[in-house]
Design goal:
homotetramer; 324 residues; alpha/beta; Rossmann fold; 9-stranded mixed beta sheet; 13 helices; 9 strands; globular
Chain lengths: 324, 324, 324, 324
Amino acid sequence: MFQIRSDLALEIRELYKENTQQEIPGVEVEQKKQEFATITHVKVLNQEGSKIMGKPEGSYITIESPSLKKADADVKDALSQLLAKELVNLIPNKSNFKTLIVGLGNWDITPDALGPQVVSKVFVTRHFFEMYKKTDDPTMRPVSAISPGVMGTTGIETVEIIRGIVEKTKPDLVVAIDALASRRMQRVHTTIQISTTGINPGSGIGNKRKELSQHTLGVPVIAIGVPTVVDAATLANDTIKLVVDALSDQASKESEFYKLLRGMSDEDKYSLIKEVLDPYGANVIVTTKDIDVIITNISQVIANALNIALHPGIDLKDVNRYLQ
Amino acid sequence: MFQIRSDLALEIRELYKENTQQEIPGVEVEQKKQEFATITHVKVLNQEGSKIMGKPEGSYITIESPSLKKADADVKDALSQLLAKELVNLIPNKSNFKTLIVGLGNWDITPDALGPQVVSKVFVTRHFFEMYKKTDDPTMRPVSAISPGVMGTTGIETVEIIRGIVEKTKPDLVVAIDALASRRMQRVHTTIQISTTGINPGSGIGNKRKELSQHTLGVPVIAIGVPTVVDAATLANDTIKLVVDALSDQASKESEFYKLLRGMSDEDKYSLIKEVLDPYGANVIVTTKDIDVIITNISQVIANALNIALHPGIDLKDVNRYLQ
Amino acid sequence: MFQIRSDLALEIRELYKENTQQEIPGVEVEQKKQEFATITHVKVLNQEGSKIMGKPEGSYITIESPSLKKADADVKDALSQLLAKELVNLIPNKSNFKTLIVGLGNWDITPDALGPQVVSKVFVTRHFFEMYKKTDDPTMRPVSAISPGVMGTTGIETVEIIRGIVEKTKPDLVVAIDALASRRMQRVHTTIQISTTGINPGSGIGNKRKELSQHTLGVPVIAIGVPTVVDAATLANDTIKLVVDALSDQASKESEFYKLLRGMSDEDKYSLIKEVLDPYGANVIVTTKDIDVIITNISQVIANALNIALHPGIDLKDVNRYLQ
Amino acid sequence: MFQIRSDLALEIRELYKENTQQEIPGVEVEQKKQEFATITHVKVLNQEGSKIMGKPEGSYITIESPSLKKADADVKDALSQLLAKELVNLIPNKSNFKTLIVGLGNWDITPDALGPQVVSKVFVTRHFFEMYKKTDDPTMRPVSAISPGVMGTTGIETVEIIRGIVEKTKPDLVVAIDALASRRMQRVHTTIQISTTGINPGSGIGNKRKELSQHTLGVPVIAIGVPTVVDAATLANDTIKLVVDALSDQASKESEFYKLLRGMSDEDKYSLIKEVLDPYGANVIVTTKDIDVIITNISQVIANALNIALHPGIDLKDVNRYLQ
């Protein structure tokens, strides 16, 4: 059994289908098209699906919209609304429901700064509730937010920091925002993934203690991720596939070498490339030139969506009024 | 008895002396001049001194250097060395001594970003100790660092966040870096204050629970602060004094109005101005145009000093090699 | 005859009226209130008005809106529309009409970066016309844009740089965007001034050769300015006035000193304060803490307005689509 | 005859040698090793060399140092010194020799911002000479500097803007700083190229009028460039080569497909890949995560070198004093 690694559940399912011409067993997929976006719900229903996906059981919702990276205010509003609707379905409609928003990533490194930028823009209210000893408000619910930084700059596992804060502030829900890597350039800056299973940094074996999840934090964790880079090995892999396809027309399909290349699974090729690229280091990223502007735009979409979804008194009409 | 409010112990003592022509009882002052800086040790020895100063008993060390705001690499190195020496005197020389550096302030607001900028530049090592299960190293000691943000963007009291992290990571010392406000424009960007008593945000009555100190965190707290702004009321106050002085030569010193103005204590005048300025809001700051560059320079000086003071294997010669 | 110095025509007229209880001769003033803004047209009609104002004959249009500094998307759109309407009245409705937008100021210094930020956001099209040898297009007109920097970083008078570019590219109009200083804190970030007379840096005597105007560039120059700072002397001056007013109730109005203070003209007081503050240097600015965010918001309002006003095919509905 | 395209003369020569196992005729190469760097002088001596290189006759000096991307102050100083020495050899030692420094690229896009960041850091002096009508000074020479932006944001060919400024300010020399693309990831952030032939944006046929050179500006142009990105096609190309090499061991070298792949020239493969990648757009870049910090460091090295090389009164000891 092979294992496709990607931050996006959608991509794993896609690559699985390409390789096997069938759906992943134990995984349910539903898709709806909207004016500005395609929304796909991938549900990992049981252990079998979970094993193949390399992701815990739960819901993975993907909003795909090539317009996400645009500065168009109307489209941004529409996407905030779409995202807010999906979030509302996942968040209990209780007054005084407490949410902690966690912006993961390094704010000094642009493609990694999505989480911290969302945190700078959301409407935080927990301190008002504390100050005035409120337990209830018709227009808002208690929201707090933090960008803890990354282990390279803090020296502390992110989960340790968040666990400390969760114990002190006792939220009912953690929403974690993170920049992801995609396997496909086309998904970069165009895709938002919501998942009910939290975040698994590295998501390899033995990293259990590092994940941000109900398991480690004691409260449900919704993760919101946007791919902002492609890793170099992925790009090389995709390109080789395209080049081999292009060359195939010129080469005899019976040739040994061609068969060798075609016969390798995508994962084998990916591993080979990864190995070959190793000296370049994990520090190499593939992204777009205009990433500074795009991260600003997308973080606004997500912050607006969170403001709408978390506060009953905010709807799209006035949401920009609450942008920090 | 009157109360002068300032983030800088040095200023309070100075203003007290100006007003009363005597030293504050219960406060010891010592000054030494160096090539690039004047270093003043203000020791608040007892409750009487503490009451007048409005600051807890402890040591307040001020390094004053007009060159601090310059980009001159040699002077920056000299000041890092001076600051490191003062810190070394305050930090136990034990291997495996664990320090948590806390960068206070909002990284999106330039004059407030000093703490976060220092945190981005210090050399953190705690995760190496954790990963390799080290308890000891000849060249480094375990250092972690965090910029928690401010209550306006997190919704959480900073002390709650830090207390959570201190409980999880158990440092032996917290060093907190903060941008301060000065009463005098000349001190802005030219002064570093170290204190052994932690940080009292607002430092008014009833704010006890908000302070970052041994009292609230359970471990000693060293605070490092640099004034990056003057508050508007201060500037107005200083100016009025200068203008009244200038006008006095033209006015009869016997005049009632003159006597009224001269007769008011500085603190009364300051309060009056504060009240008058209220509609402008606390949001108004007085600073210098080149603050972006200056904050970068000063945060480098402080990060270098911390790297030298905390890690036995780092001295000035190689300190820039460890700048993140 | 006294001379009030301010970047804002509105303020000069206001201060004149306060001091003399009459309108400036040779100056016509008209005001209309709108939903989000008050618009004031100050027309300097002749030499007498020009002398008193310290500004050339021409139109000075001020849009005042406390909402300008807000992030509210709807209000921003409304203000862009208002500004666009005023600009349309000043710009000939000719196809192939060529405009050069000049962003004055230093992009590394936040309160000075308004012009450069507008330039990064406007929709430039001149190169399409050049590439395809177009002379005419139903939806757009040729627009170019440059941020030349300031003399301190270029070593060149800005007018020399712009004159060189005007000679090479032959625009029909220059629109120059600049950050201004206001006399009143309340105007900071809330006011847009359009003037048909260009820009006079320093605007003192002998600076004629430095101005950006039809006189120096050979084409009409429209200036758009927004106050982003108050100078320190102004703040001190305003405060003294408020404090003296507050104190007056306690002092006999017959006192000599009071009369001295009251008797001084605002300008005399301002000069005295300026002199007293001199050691602080011109580098001191008074602004608001959240200036980074506000400059971004206002530059978007202005860039949108320019896009609507300059390109017949762009209206408010799609204007954000053309934001760079 | 084939044509290798690269911004770096060194790379073209290297790839030529790899493909042909011989030196390029009409090109002289000399290499010296220093403590922190390898310096290579490539001289294109005649038309034949120029044709093969795709670069004008002239000198191309490359300083290669893996330490360039480090923050180490001592190494940065050593590299500034090395670069300054090479520049001094190219710049006439005349008092009152006027230099205009041009920072090419878009300051809003990090990997493109090298030129503008150097311009913000160099010591400009021309305005002092103008103000005091100096023609001569023992410590400094008249230097001006500008970052004109890129055609996408100005709507004007950069050469038109610079020509306008050259005509107005009459410098004796233009030094243009630009971010380059490399063919090899290892060269990114580790290489400085100086050339005496100016800059050819795109450098394809028909672009003659766009180049910044003595030909278009009327004064000599020295170009300083640093590769800050690899283009995606290059990365894919390099990887394919490595993968094919790795696979070859498993495949019969007699296979048709293998021969096809091996038989293609690098340039043919590059073109094929370029075509295949086209939908991704030219907007895709490959760089390193820490590019923000690295661009700051490298721009400091170059600014220091220019300050030392252009002003007789500045040497390494005090150079940081003149950093803006």
